[in-house]
Amino acid sequence: MNVYLIILNIAVLLLLIGVLAYMQKKHISFSKRVFTALGLGIVFGFALQGVYGADSAIVQHSTQWFDIVGTGYVKLLQMIVMPLVFISIVMAFTKLSISNNLGKIATLIIGLLLGTTAIAASIGIMTSLGFQLEAMEIPSGEAEQARGQELEQKYEQIQNLSFPQKIIELLPANPFLDFTGQRSTSTIAVVIFAAFVGIAYLGVARKQPEQAEMFKKIVDSLYAIVMRIVTLVLRLTPYGILAIMSRVTATSDIDAIAKLGKFVVASYIALFVMFAIHLLILALAGLNPITYVKKVLPVLSFAFTSRSSAATLPLNVKAQTTALGVPEGIANFAGSFGLSIGQNGCAGIYPAMLAVMIAPTVNIDPTSLAFILTLILVVTISSFGVAGVGGGATFAAILVLSTMNLPVALAGLLISVEPLIDMGRTALNVSGSMTAGVVTSRITKELNLNIYNGETQKLEA
């Protein structure tokens, strides 16, 4: 292994970071810098793979250094997710305009998230049937078998829980534990805890208005501090995307992707169709979908590269409020709920496609109406509590496959293309939560149309 080549690769990355820093110094727009970083990362990553090979020691060691920037950035975003979720939900209760319509807003957001997940499941089913995808056609090597065994072990950890017990798992028995994100349901548990704090505030506001006003000022101050931290971290977005994309493209197994090309193509067609439905929903709400696309592309680009809905939350909320005209309370609800409820890509399309592919291996007809309707229902219900981090789709797939009495281990056959597909799924998840926030604001007549239809506001300050 040539240490000098590794140093050279690191120097090239630093040079590209310097280019992005120069663009920032020249006040080039955030969106242009994000897409420049995305393009540079793809070109640099494929160049590394072409020169050294994806499995070479030089690439592996070089990308470990890249992770200081890429993974480090994601960790900084994850650092602020739980504080942001908590303080954002509590602040939603302290906003009078939100508290007056709280029940309606929460119902609309959850209803939109679950409704679009049911549609996503239907699209996943139709895509699998249309492309005639079958698990038996996928080659199984050592990596696939190992992944299958890992999934079975995860399944054994949750198989003894009944559906009521799984619902109970969403509740925050220890909020401080959930603030650490140690459980797969930690995010939704923090949302529930924050809702209790908010409801308590409303009660105090009626009986002890002076105490409530003091609490409101504290919440406002904490929110301002948290959002300032968000702004500081978001400034690093182009650099994080550059490093992440460089690593992803440099280490991708092109041969494995080619072998499973049919599944990859089918997956992305399903994802694009569902994204088109998001745009259709916006159009039906009387909003220009093209405007939406232009304003959310930087957010979706980061979601695509990071593969983490949770890490994208700060960008998600910021874009809803500053670029799309969604009130802070609704944006925070939609973004936070979207982390664990109704993820269109990870909890909708992916488990549905897998179930249709695997069903024939146990002599189940995936085209039967009873199977399809049951699968859509199971996918929708199972979308509660899916973790908003990379790997959340695995948890959703285990729940769906086990409920449908299908072999969980066969989901491991897709391990080689899992990261590539997960990028698209995550972007769709984020779009779903943002669509829910915009449409909810439109229905409740709280959407600022001047901001939505105006020039794109900066996502950083």
How would you characterize the overall build of this protein?
This protein has a single domain (1-453), classed as Orthogonal Bundle (Proton glutamate symport protein), CATH 1.10.3860. The two termini are 43 Å apart. The mean pLDDT is 83. With 461 residues, it is mainly alpha-helical. The protein is 77% helix and 0% strand. The protein is globular, with a radius of gyration of 22 Å.
Layout of helices and strands:
Elements: H1 3-25, H2 30-52, H3 57-94, H4 96-100, H5 102-131, H6 142-158, H7 163-168, H8 175-179, H9 186-207, H10 209-234, H11 237-251, H12 254-259, H13 261-284, H14 289-306, H15 309-322, H16 328-340, H17 344-358, H18 369-382, H19 392-403, H20 418-443, H21 449-453
Radius of gyration: 22 Å
Mean pLDDT: 83
Give the domain tally.
1
CATH fold category name: Proton glutamate symport protein
Corresponding CATH architecture: Orthogonal Bundle
As residue ranges, the low-confidence spans are none
Q: Give the number of helices.
A: 21
Name of the CATH superfamily:
Sodium:dicarboxylate symporter
CATH class: Mainly Alpha
Strand content: under 5%
Structural class: mainly alpha
Q: What is the string of SSEs from the N terminus onward?
A: HHHHHHHHHHHHHHHHHHHHH
Tell me the total number of β-strands.
0
Distance between the termini: 43 Å
Determine the fraction of residues in helical runs and give it as a percent range: over 70%
Please describe the biggest sheet, giving its number of strands, its sense, and whether it closes into a barrel: none
Overall geometry comes to globular
Keywords: Amino-acid transport, Membrane, Transmembrane, Transmembrane helix, Transport
Transmembrane segments: 6-22, 34-52, 72-93, 105-126, 185-204, 225-245, 265-287, 369-389, 395-415
Protein name: L-cystine uptake protein TcyP
GO molecular function, one term: symporter activity
